[in-house]
Amino acid sequence: MEHTRPQVVFFNLTFDLSIILTTTIAALLVFTIAYLCTRNLTAGTPKKWQNFMEWILDFVKDIMNNSMASTNNLFVLSTGISLLMYLFIANLLGVPFSIITIEQHPVTWWRSPTADAHVTMTLAIMIIAYTHFIDIRLHGFKHFLLSFFKPFKALFAINILEQFATTLTLGLRLFGNIYAGEVMLALLAGAVTQGFAVATLAALPMLIWQAFCVFIGAIQAYIFVTLTMVYIGHRLT
Fold first, then answer.
1. What is the mean pLDDT of residues 84-107?
2. Is residue 150 helix, strand or coil?
3. SS3 7
4. Where are the alpha helices (DSSP H) in 140-195?
5. Is the Cβ–Cβ distance between 62 and 228 less than 8 Å?
6. Domain of 86?
7. Does residue 103 belong to any structural domain of this protein?
8. 109-124 burial by CB neighbour count: b if 16+ within 10 A, else e?
9. Each residue of 160-170: pLDDT tens digit?
10. What are phi and psi of 209, to 5 degrees?
11. pLDDT tens-place string over residues 197-230
12. Assigned domain for 85 exists
C-alpha cells in the first residue's frame, strides 16, 4: 500500500513534518548522549558514560588518521563525532517500528530520516561545501580556483563534474541503503498481519532483517564519515 508524508506549505515552501520530527529527535538524542557522557569528566579511570564517549573519540581519530594522516584539527574531529553519532541514530530510527495514521489514505509519520533523499542529499551538499570552505580558508580563493585546472587545464570540465558526482554518490549511497532496508521491513511487517500462519513464517525473517538493518546503519554512518574525512584531507593538501 502506498503511503504519503504529512506536509505543510509555508511561504510557498513545502515542509515534511515527518522529517522535521525525526531529524529533531535524532539531534536531541545526540545532544542528550553527549551531555550524559561529558557532564562528569574525570582525569583518572573513566566511568562507563565517559568511557563510551572516549571510545567514539578514538574511533573517529583512527578514521582521521587513516584518511587524513592527522588528528590535530579539533573542529574536524568534532564534525566527525557529531556526524557519526547523528547518522547512526538517524539510520536506526525506523528499524524498531513505524508510525502510520489512517485518514483518507495512509500517512507515514515515523521512519528513518536518512531514508529520504532530501535529507541525505542536503547532508552531502553541506559536506562538499564545507570541504570547499576549508580549502579557501587555508589556501585562499585563488588556489581554490586553480585546483580545478589541475593537473591539466583541459580537465577543468571533468573536475567540475567530479564535484557534482561526488555529492550525488555521497548522498544517494546513504539514502539507497537505508531506504531499501525500510522497504523490506515494511513488506515483512505487512506479511506479519496476514494471519497466524504467515505471521509465524515472517516473524523470524523480520527479526533477522532488523538486526541486519542495524548493521547496515552502522556501516553507512562509518562510510559517510570516512568519505567526509577523505574529502577534507584532499583539501588540506
1. 75
2. coil
3. strand
4. 141-146, 156-192
5. no
6. 7-236
7. yes
8. ebbbbbbbeebbbebb
9. 898 899 999 99
10. -70, -35
11. 666 676 777 778 788 888 999 999 999 999 999 9
12. yes
